[in-house]
């Protein structure tokens, strides 16, 4: 019975081929769907531009979207035809297509009209300036654009990137881009992630963030941005992470920063911020990481901040910002705190040893380089737990109990650089 069924199906197939009868229904299989001819030609030309003419896609990969796909190329069906939706170039994976040292950005790349994601990893080694033309072709389709580890990419970020109004993710990480950031970048109203870290951008940060209501991550770290932080940063109501570290930004923290009620990370280390700590920081009760180290914030005590309101803090680094006064007791209420950096300031007074030790999660404590006085009253168990993650040296008037120093069992865990009390 089974043999008769197979025979009937085979006979039907042969008849349809021999008679050319096209009235029989066709079953559309995504694996066998053809690719638009112009799309295929544009894809091969664009890829050849990056990996070299020696690569011949038609010979190596006759079906770039089906059974034998090209590594780094993903497709989808539109009107029963395959179109490229994702193109990733560079050695992201071991079998990815490696970019040629003499690559070229061919115009055929911009003919991929359904492209949603485009990324380049370690492709541009020799100096190259990206032309601003053609990016408008991706305005209605592109949702993710990434340039990662391309030291040869120099010049300004094309202002026409601001035309990519459907863009949700813009990652420009560790390239050679320089010059000022185009204000057109604030046209990207759908953006959720903007990472421009590790380039050579300079000048002021554009004061145009008001329309970026959906932005979750803003990372402008490791550049040469200068001037003041624009007040429109307070309009980024959805923001979760703000990293401006390692720049040349100066002036006061804008009061509007207190409007960022969803912020979990604020990293401003290694800048030139001054004017003291803003009381509005305590309004950001969602913060888990607050890093302000190495800024000339001016001589100000920490007592003006209601630290107890910031109960979500896990990391607090306010080292080397010119703080004076005593260590506020409010810090000892931060039960989730794992890292506390108070070093290299002008702090005075006693160390609330017992209350700091009572913090259940504390794993790193740095109070070195201040003018603290009195005895350290931490237990041996505390010192054993902390190890070299506790530092109290360079406090001329700070001492540790004599028995801690003299005891053979305590000596190997006692903090370095703290004299015995007399």
Automatic annotation (TrEMBL):
Signal sequence residues: 1-20
Subcellular location: Cell membrane
Location (main, coarse): membrane
Single GO biological process annotation from the record: response to fungus
UniProt entry tagged with the keyword Ribonucleoprotein: no
Keyword line: Cell membrane, Leucine-rich repeat, Membrane, Repeat, Signal
Entries under SUPFAM superfamilies matching the protein: L domain-like
Residue intervals passing through the bilayer: none
Protein name per UniProt: Piriformospora indica-insensitive protein 2
Lineage, uppermost ranks: Eukaryota, Viridiplantae, Streptophyta, Embryophyta, Tracheophyta
């Amino acid at each position: 019975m089974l043999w008769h069924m197979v025979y009937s199906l085979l006979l039907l197939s042969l008849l349809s081929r021999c008679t050319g009868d096209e009235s029989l229904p066709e079953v559309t299989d995504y694996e066998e769907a053809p690719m638009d001819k112009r799309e295929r030609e544009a894809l091969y030309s664009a890829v050849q531009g990056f990996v070299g003419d020696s690569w011949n896609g038609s010979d190596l990969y006759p079906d770039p979207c089906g059974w034998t796909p090209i590594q780094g190329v993903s497709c989808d069906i539109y009107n029963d035809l395959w179109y490229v939706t994702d193109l990733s170039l560079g050695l992201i994976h071991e079998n990815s297509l490696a970019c040629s040292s003499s690559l070229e950005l061919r115009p055929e790349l911009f003919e991929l009209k359904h492209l949603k994601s485009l990324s380049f990893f370690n492709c541009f080694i020799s100096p190259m300036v990206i032309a601003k033309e053609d990016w408008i072709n991706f305005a209605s389709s592109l949702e993710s654009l990434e340039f990662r580890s391309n030291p040869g990419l120099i010049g300004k970020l094309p202002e026409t990137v601001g035309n990519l109004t459907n863009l949700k993710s813009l990652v420009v990480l560790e390239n050679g881009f320089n010059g000022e950031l185009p204000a057109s970048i604030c046209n990207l109203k759908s953006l959720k992630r903007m990472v421009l870290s590790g380039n050579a951008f300079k000048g002021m940060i554009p004061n145009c963030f008001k329309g970026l209501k959906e932005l979750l991550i803003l990372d402008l770290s490791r550049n040469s941005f200068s001037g003041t932080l624009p007040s429109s940063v307070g309009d980024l109501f959805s923001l979760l992470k703000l990293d401006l570290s390692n720049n040349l930004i100066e002036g006061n923290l804008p009061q509007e920063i207190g409007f960022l009620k969803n912020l979990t990370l604020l990293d401003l280390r290694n800048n030139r911020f001054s004017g003291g700590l803003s009381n509005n920081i305590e309004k950001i009760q969602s913060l888990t990481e607050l890093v302000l180290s190495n800024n000339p914030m001016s001589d100000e005590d920490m007592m003006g901040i209601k630290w107890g309101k910031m109960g979500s803090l896990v990391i607090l680094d306010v080292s080397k910002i010119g703080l004076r006064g005593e260590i506020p007791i409010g810090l000892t209420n931060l039960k989730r705190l794992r890292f506390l950096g108070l070093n290299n300031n002008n702090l005075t007074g006693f160390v609330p040893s017992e209350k700091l030790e009572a913090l259940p999660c504390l794993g790193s404590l740095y109070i070195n380089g201040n003018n603290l006085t009195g005895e350290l009253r931490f237990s041996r168990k505390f010192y054993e737990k902390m190890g070299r993650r506790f530092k109290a040296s360079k406090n001329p008037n700070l001492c540790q109990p004599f028995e801690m120093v003299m005891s053979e069992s305590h000596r190997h865990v006692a903090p370095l650089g703290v004299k015995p009390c007399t």
